[in-house]
Amino acid sequence: MKKKYKIGVISDTDPSIVRVLKNAGLYEYFDQLTFNFELGVNKPSSLIFEHALQGMNLPAKEIVFIDDYEKNLDSAANLGIQPILILSKPNLQESSKYPSINKLSDLLLLL
To answer: In the CATH hierarchy, which top-level class contains the domain 8-110?
Structure first.
């Protein structure tokens, strides 16, 4: 996907994620990394999504955001970002508002 799309992460996590991504050899695959510990806000704050949008340097309508919480998807959608619900938790059901996928590789079916 990296050859055709920009890839970013928006995550509520702790600072060790940077080390983990670098040690796993994954850090270089991302065009934008937006972490709550750097901004002092958590999802669904619009500030975290605005920061990611600035870093991606693309119009919001060209950005897809995947999350397993509809409240986070709502916040992204309010900024014009295309939300997708990932059904990664047990008993999580498809959304009536947003497209749903079962795993990240299913995203290719929607793009």
So the answer is: alpha beta
pLDDT tens for the chain, 111 residues: list them.
788 899 999 999 999 999 999 999 999 999 999 999 999 999 999 999 999 999 999 999 999 999 999 999 999 999 999 999 999 877 778 778 999 999 988 998 888
List of residues 6+ apart from 109 with CB closer than 8 A: 101
Domain range list for the chain: 8-110
Cβ atoms within 10 Å of 101's Cβ, excluding its own:
18
Strands 100-101 and 82-86: parallel
64 beta partners: 82
